Each structure stands twice: as C-alpha cells, then as structure tokens.
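Appendix B. Raw example, untouched.
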Amino acid sequence: LCAIKGIGEAKAAQIKAALELGKRFSREEAQKKRKIKSAGDVVMYVSEYYAPYLRDAKQEFFNVILLDARNKVIDNIEISRGGLTASIVEPREIIREAMMKAASSIILVHNHPSGEAEPSKGDVETTKRMIEACRVVGIKVLDHVIIGKNKADYLSFSEKGII
C-alpha cells in the first residue's frame, strides 16, 4: 500500500485496519446461531465465516464446523495449517474436538492456496476416511467445502454428490 502515491505508513495501517474490521463483521454475522438446512446454507456460512480469511492465504488451512443435533453451529475449530499444497488431518483430532463439544455432526472446510477448488485425490480420500471414522462414533459428516480464490470458487462435496 505504501507504494501508492499519497499513502504513508499511517494511512496504510488505517486501510488494513478497516479491511480487518470488515472481515470480523462478516464473521460475526455468520456466527449468529444459524441453522444449517441445506448444502446452500453450508456454502453461505463458509463464505461468510471463512472465505475472507482463507481466500488469500498462502498455506492450506483445514477447519471443522461443529453442529448440534438441530444443525446449529456450536463452534469453528482450526484443525491444521499446512504448506502450499497440503495440510495434515488426523480423524482422531476432529473426533476429539467433536466429542468434547457434544457435536452430532460436522462440516469439513479447507482452502486451496492455488485458487482451484477442485478436490485432489487426497481430499477425496481424506473425506472418505473422516466419514468412516466419524460413523463409528455416531458423528455425521454433512459436507466438505473447499474454498478457492474468488467468492464463486468453492466446491461442496455434498452438492457434487461426493458425500
């Protein structure tokens, strides 16, 4: 920002602060106890809560949304941060978090720093492994959403019929 004529360090800090406030406002709106009823609701929630932070991330983040029996959001947990192309996801970490918060279902969320929202073979395998591990303990995986660069760049495993 400081490379733009007329913008010094103080003005750049103000602009960055204003952008951060906008992100936080968007996240606050998403956090209101909203019931998730469809894949469209999942995508809208993810878009409001995660996308402002994950779209431009330079590394991969893997998060889980914990839901109660009525599909209301209990919590949002960051499970791992990875490199440019992958993050390590252990089913036991997700199950532990879900059990501690008494979640009855979860939604998996991660970004692709490349901007492409298409799932890799590893993404599909991880999702299937998570579904099976969660099934054993009675937790349902409702969706897995991958966030790309732009608002329209996302992929819902549920919408695509992968889940």
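End of appendix B.
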